[in-house]
Amino acid sequence: MRDRREPPGAPGTINLDTGRLKKLLIERNTLELRHVRADAEVGRLTQEQNVLVGRSNATTDRLQRAKLDAEYKKRTKDVDKSRAEREKILKEFHRKELEIADVVAALWEAAQAFIAASTRSAAHSDSAAADELVRLAATLHAVEGATTKNTSAIATAEAAARSAAEGVERLSRSVHDIERGLSGQPPPGRRRILQIGGRPDVPATPELSEEEKATLPENTTVLLFASEPRDLPRPDLAQEITEILRRIDEAEFGDRIDLRPWPATQPFDLLPNLNRHKPHMVQFSGHGREDGILLMGPNDRSEPIEADQLIQMLRWTNVNLRIVFFNLCDSEAHARLAAEFVDAAIGLRGAFSDAPAREFAAALYSALAFGKSVEHAFHQACAKVQGWPDGASPQLFFREDADPSRIVLVKP
Fold it and tell me: Is 8 helix (H, G, I), strand (E, B) or coil?
């Protein structure tokens, strides 16, 4: 990225590869355009799916319905393929942004070094350092110029509309975010999210003070959204709910937890129930994926809901919410996002089969209903499924200003 040299008579001189930066900016804009097109294709195919579902629901002719169902399955494969392509492009885009951030970080570091050098020189009399600062300023202007002159490389008018100015602003923010990252500080307006996995040395739950106990509700409401679409392998969520209820009932303070399961959850079930019950904890069970979760849709088929949309629903209905539990495959990223506005969130890295997912959830609720902290309950549940031949690894997320060892769900 940069070649640091100190030839005689020019201490601190630095050679920056601006050509590489221009190339990276062009490649990033190209990937951004490809992602926009891929996202539009996913939307088009999904809309066609919805039309097929509507036609299937409207017809009473079995032969016609079977034909429409077969077309729906074919279109589902097309949607999945299109989503996979979109995710591939998005990952390439993120990698390119990281490369750009590295180069910008080098520019920033170089600027700081030269500013420090010129400050140390008497009355800025070091002409070599002054010349280098001028050259560096010209380089930074070239960065801006690169983002505004790349339309010929992309060869489409759409690329120009991708707003080169936003690209420059984003690079500017990246510089400052990198600076804060080097000093251990999160970006402005954001608090650092901490993450832990299961470990054998389960920490002890510290005794809460009387003041802390007084803030806990007399009764705790938990919403459990479960969904088993018929076009996917069906987990036995009824058994999971039964086991959770049994463990809560056996616990010392189980009578203070009001668990409200919502089987066959559809997207339109979420907001009314969140608004009505104002839960202290929410759980999602069923099928998950990296870009969201799958709920029950028309004709009991799976209907996706994007992770960002789900997180915003939780954020804007958050009255009492303290814990979000994604008992879903590939839900680590969802939990990390939820931890920005709740006390703690749990997700799975990888895929769990039904039995360990059920055992993990039951053990988690049992510990919570005994008055254990979310940290203690999490480690107990991890210990319960330790050794299962699954690739999933439960993860607990919380903000840096939160202490999971003092997050208790029920009033002891």
Answer: coil
Q: What angle do CA 198, 200, 204 make, to 5 degrees?
A: 90
Gap between the Cα atoms of 205 and 194, Å rounded: 19
Contacts by residues 69-75 (CB-CB < 8 Å, ≥ 24 positions apart): 72/301, 73/231, 75/45, 75/48, 75/49
- Quick count: other Cβ atoms within 10 Å of Cβ 389? 6
Contact by Cβ (8 Å): 141, 22: no
Phi, psi for 285 (deg, rounded to 5): -130, 145
How many CA atoms does the CB half-sphere of 181 hold within 13 Å? 10
**pLDDT mean over 295-305:** 87
> What integer pLDDT is reported at residue 386 of this predicted model?
81
State which amino acid sits at residue 335.
A
Q: What secondary structure does DSSP assign to 93-104, as a single string?
A: HHHHHHHHHHHH
DSSP string, 380-394: HHHHHHTT-S---EE
Q: Do residues 326 and 395 make contact, with C-beta atoms less than 8 angstroms apart?
A: no
Note the pLDDT of residue 14: 40
Distance (Å, whole) CA 362 – CA 381: 8
Rounded Cα–Cα distance for residues 374 and 345 (Å): 9
Which ranges of 208-306 would DSSP assign to H, the alpha helix? 210-215, 237-250, 270-277
How big, in percent rounded to 5, are the helix, strand and coil portions of the chain? 60, 15, 25
H-type alpha helices, 59-126: 62-120
* Distance in angstroms (rounded) separating the CA atoms of residues 329 and 318: 24
CB atoms within 10 A of CB 170: 18
pLDDT at residue 45 is higher than 90: no
How is residue 300 annotated by DSSP?
G
| 179 pLDDT tier (thresholds 50, 70, 90) | very low
Cα–Cα dist 303/49, whole Å: 10
Q: Tell which residue, 404, 343, 411, 402, has the closest CA to residue 379.
A: 404
Place of tokens 């009387």: 210
Whole-model pTM? 0.56
The Cβ of residue 50 has, within 10 Å, a number of other Cβ atoms equal to 13
